[in-house]
Amino acid sequence: MRLPAKLMRPRLFGTLARTRLFTLLDEHCKHTATWVNGPPGSGKTTLVASYVEACKHPTVWYQVDGGDADPATFFYYLHQAVTHGMHREDITLPLLTPEYLADLPGFARRFFRALFSHLPADVVLVFDDMHQATASSVFCELLEHAMGAAPDDANIILVSRTEPPQAFLRAIASQRLVAVGWEDLRLSIEETHAIVAAVSGVSDDQIAA
Description:
The protein is α/β, with parallel strands linked by helices and 209 residues long. Helices cover 44% and strands 12% of the residues. The protein has helices at 19-28, 44-55, 71-85, 104-118, 137-149, 169-173, 182-185, 189-200, 204-208, and strands at residues 33-37, 59-63, 124-128, 155-160, 177-180. Strands 2-3-4-1-5 form a five-stranded parallel beta sheet.
């Protein structure tokens, strides 16, 4: 079966390894979730894709879109993402059938407990383009349940053009959710030199001179 693009990690070509930010993301792993936000073109998705490639943790990648505001759509595609990301066809997760709609929080807790039971303890779940669906309070609530079910060694990375919405204030206050913002994403002088050197073929020493 051909997977939709929303479940595939972006391909990287000649990407600068931003070790400064890799270290920051490593430090944030002691928290349950990290929110990475910056304007379009700021390199946030590339940063996270290169980070999970470098850290070698098992990864599930999910690109959020407006349709994920519908819980049934979200759970359906997340099941597919986990099956694909873990290269396993035998993962069975609860189905959101009509009788569960009256207690969506209860279903979400059950779903995410089952999901993490199938995943390696050090898994990284990446939700890219979070700004596409965070206007939905229901969607944000579902992700809060994911944070609540995540084991200590697992990490959830949320990538967005916007800062965390108010729906995540409790997660921020409890430090389950921490942020990497635009000020962090800005290129340092050293990183700028490295990019110029890679593009022009001029050494860092020549640029600095």
